[in-house]
């Protein structure tokens, strides 16, 4: 198991280096001058102050030199300073709880609703419920997130007044219900369809026929023999989806004005605050890789054939 864990960890390192470099390259290739963005559109800096700021943030160094300095600081736990003069680590510490609560809320919605809908569709194959689930998930996959988010805000927040439209003043869970539901739509169709397929496969399995022949009640057969085995492949998808949800909150936090990590990126990009974008982006990549690594290790424990392969 130790060799398998080491192998998966070594495979994750090139992904981390590659993605962080691409983030770094994309941020510092943005048009505009970050120093002028820091000063403001109507304020001119003296040449000496501008040069001092460029030297402080190493903006005159070649890109590879800047990236090397960033990696060196990253290894020592230093994510640098934002252009506003605040340590990036403090920005992350203040914003991470919001992103975590949003991601977990969305994951719970996706898990419960996806498994429930998929199970109902599998057990009612060819009936109205099955058609509604398949049709509904197809529609959801085709509608952009921002459209669903704005419609939810208008209907549930403005017209009906059931949920807060934006912000975190209402606290958890109320402030996170609407954005969590919208974010959950990212993976809910896949979870529902995979659960449906898995339920259908297990309904025709020999052990289910044996349990039925022994006189077990239909509910007991479904719970003990169908669902238990059907959820095994779904667990992997749910684990990977948690990483996606935690690292994919940029648009949702921007729309719902949630001061999480995604919101920090959302506001830092127009301000050309590269250290914040790169630091937060690196953390989100690390979270995604860590969750995927834990899922791989869990599957390696549940199925030794994966480790041997």
UniProtKB/TrEMBL annotation:
GO term, biological process aspect, one: transmembrane transport
Transmembrane segments: 9-30, 104-124, 131-158, 170-188, 234-256, 276-302
One Pfam assignment: BPD_transp_1_N
Gene3D superfamilies in alphabetical order: MetI-like
Keywords annotated in UniProt: Cell membrane, Membrane, Transmembrane, Transmembrane helix, Transport
Keyword ATP-binding included in the entry's annotation: no
Domain ABC transmembrane type-1: 96-295
Compartment annotation: Cell membrane
GO CC annotation terms, alphabetical: plasma membrane
Keyword presence, Zinc-finger: no
Topology of this chain in the membrane: Multi-pass membrane protein
Family affiliation: Belongs to the binding-protein-dependent transport system permease family.
Protein name: Oligopeptide transport system permease protein
Organism for this UniProt entry: Nonomuraea fuscirosea
């Amino acid at each position: 198991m130790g060799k398998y864990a080491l192998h998966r960890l070594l495979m994750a390192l090139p992904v981390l280096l590659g993605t962080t470099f691409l983030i770094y390259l994309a941020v510092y290739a943005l048009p505009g001058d970050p120093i002028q963005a820091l000063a403001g559109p109507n304020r001119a800096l003296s040449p000496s102050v501008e040069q001092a700021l460029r030297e402080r943030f190493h903006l005159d160094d070649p890109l590879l030199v800047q990236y090397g300095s960033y990696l060196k600081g990253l290894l020592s736990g230093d994510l640098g300073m934002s252009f506003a003069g605040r340590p990036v680590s403090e920005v992350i510490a203040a914003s991470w709880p919001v992103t975590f609560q949003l991601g977990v809320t969305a994951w719970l919605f996706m898990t419960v609703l996806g498994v429930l809908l998929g199970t109902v569709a599998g057990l009612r194959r060819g009936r109205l419920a099955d058609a509604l689930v398949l049709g509904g998930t197809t529609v959801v996959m085709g509608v952009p997130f921002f459209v669903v988010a704005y419609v939810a805000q208008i209907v549930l927040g403005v017209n009906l007044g059931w949920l807060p439209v934006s912000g975190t003043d209402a606290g958890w869970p109320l402030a996170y219900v609407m954005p969590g539901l919208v974010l959950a739509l990212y993976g809910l169709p896949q979870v529902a369809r995979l659960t449906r397929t898995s339920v259908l496969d297990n309904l025709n399995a020999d052990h289910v026929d044996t349990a039925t022949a022994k006189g077990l009640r239909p509910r007991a057969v479904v719970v003990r023999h169908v669902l238990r085995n059907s959820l095994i492949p779904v667990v992997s998808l749910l684990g990977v989806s948690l990483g996606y949800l935690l690292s994919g909150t940029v648009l949702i936090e921007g729309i719902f004005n949630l001061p999480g990590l995604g919101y920090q990126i959302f506001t830092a990009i127009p301000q050309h605050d590269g250290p914040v974008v790169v630091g937060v982006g690196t953390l989100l990549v690390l979270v995604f890789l860590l969750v995927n690594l834990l899922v791989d290790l869990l599957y390696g424990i549940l199925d030794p054939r994966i480790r041997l392969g």
